[in-house]
Specification:
- This protein has 2 helices and 7 strands.
- The chain is an alpha+beta fold.
- It has a single domain (2-67), classed as Structural Genomics Hypothetical 15.5 Kd Protein In mrcA-pckA Intergenic Region, Chain A (Roll), CATH 3.10.290.
- Strands 1-7-6-3-4 form a 5-stranded mixed β-sheet, with no helix packed on it.
- The longest helix has 9 residues, at 26-34.
Length: 68
Amino acid sequence: MITFELDTPYIELIKLLKITRVAESGAAAKGLVEAGQVYRNGQLESRKRAKIVKGECITTQGKAIQVV
């Protein structure tokens, strides 16, 4: 599991995927979301710019990101 320390009120989903290197680029992150491969707290997330806050867990391609 990847732990990401958030120092702002929120981070956009595609930026989180890119910063944590789960996606190689912003375009790759968008592709994951568009393909329906990203889950937010166990639920499918289809909004590329969804505001992710502390306490949430993002999963995709067998990787999990815990936002703290």
